[in-house]
Design a protein that fits this description.
By secondary structure, this protein is of the alpha/beta class. It is built from 13 helices and ten strands. The chain is globular, with a radius of gyration of 20 Å. The two termini are 39 Å apart. It binds zinc ion. The site of zinc ion has 8 residues, from loops.
Length: 374
């Protein structure tokens, strides 16, 4: 059964963990506009070069009953994982074709997300409140500056929320979230480990500003962050990279081939290095989940292939017996909440609303308003 915003908003405490799915980045801009397309419409056959399409079709034909449109639509993340598996096959020819295809597919996905992100990065000329377009993310980031023990976990690859955290640092008491995320990345790189502080941010399925090398003959092949500086710093638009001046992505510093964005969709086809990177990030996410008394899922559809997230959530629930409220905010929240409740074995509330109308209603209840568009 669906509940009102008030029921969810009433459960927001100083220890709230937000879990963001594709629907959150789709609806991060505010009233009447959309931003990053949801996965099923993110990419289609027209977005891929014809040689990549034919390679993908050749790979698909003997191994999968699914059509190309399904493979690039709803099943895009599974397709990336499947190509990751084929890329490490013993058959050299097959592995090499799959690897090339994987590289091109990720490049096309990254291009589509970056292009769609431009709308969220633009200033909209508001005179009060948030000056960038991704208002719902700016709202969340500014609330994190007030409630520094809030945590945010995202399954999205885009960097719009990262950007919002960066901007808020200049306006309010800096929230610890972005620094905590950079520390997590640095710790992985250095092999060190500090106890996390409550309140933080983690990207569970990779990010467009992190990279790996997909050249199969490279010593750093599919080893996340192997090619980044030992100590990362933030800079406008992403992490500082080892690269040629003016080269946005930078080449791999081991083999010179251009790097590929680190997209880590769920699935079993990871290299040991990829698994160890994901374990490192999931350890941090588990801490945030364990120590939060309210979980609010925004725009997350609980797809059946998201086994890693389901495992993480169940682990958090069974390892820390604390009284916890869990809610789903999405237009089709009741069916999502029912699925999630079954997976977690606990009650899950549903607020059938978009991210935008939820933020509006929470602001109505707790105070605040949106700027007007110039
Ligand atoms: Zn390389």
């Amino acid at each position: 059964m669906s509940q009102s915003t008030a029921a969810t908003a009433g459960s927001i405490t100083t220890r709230t963990c937000w879990i963001l799915g594709a629907g959150a980045s789709f609806d991060c801009i505010g009233p009447g506009r959309t931003c990053i397309p949801v996965t099923r419409s993110l990419i289609n056959r027209n977005a891929l070069p014809s040689d990549v399409l034919s390679r993908l079709e050749q790979l698909l034909a003997p191994t999968s009953p699914d059509s190309l449109d399904e493979t690039l639509g709803d099943q895009l993340e599974q397709t990336i994982d499947w190509l990751m598996g084929l890329s490490t096959e013993g058959d050299e020819g097959l592995a090499s074709r799959a690897s090339e295809c994987l590289r091109e597919l990720i490049a096309s996905v990254a291009y589509a997300v970056r292009t769609a992100s431009i709308g969220g990065h633009a200033r909209h000329g508001g005179t009060v409140g948030f000056s960038y377009a991704a208002e719902n993310y700016f709202w969340l980031a500014s609330m994190c500056a007030v409630y520094q023990e809030w945590s945010v976990l995202t399954l999205n690859w885009d960097c719009l929320l990262d950007r919002a955290f960066e901007e808020i640092q200049g306006i309010r008491r800096p929230p610890p979230h972005l620094d905590g995320w950079i520390r997590c990345i640095n710790e992985y790189k250095l092999g060190s480990h500090e106890a996390p502080t409550l309140g933080g941010y983690a990207k569970l399925h990779g990010s467009l500003d992190l990279f790996f090398c997909l050249n199969r003959s490279c010593a750093a092949y599919r080893s996340p962050l192997a090619n980044l500086r030992p100590k990362l710093r933030r800079r406008e638009g992403g992490f500082e990279m080892f690269g040629l001046p003016g080269d946005k992505h930078g080449p791999c510093n081991k083999c010179g081939v251009p790097l590929t964005e680190l997209l880590m969709p769920p699935g079993k086809n990871k290299t040991p290095q990829e698994s160890s990177f994901l374990e490192h990030v999931h350890r941090l996410a588990l801490y945030y989940l364990q120590h939060s008394s309210t979980w609010i899922f925004v725009g997350y559809s609980v797809p059946s292939y998201d086994i890693d997230v389901a495992h993480l959530l169940r682990q958090a629930i069974t390892s820390m017996a604390i009284e916890r409220s869990i809610f789903v905010v999405a237009p089709d929240a009741p069916s999502i909440a029912a699925r999630l409740s079954k997976i977690l074995g606990v009650q899950v509330g549903a607020t059938a609303e978009t991210f935008t109308s939820f933020v509006d209603n929470v602001m109505r209840i707790h105070g605040g308003s949106r700027p007007g568009w110039a």
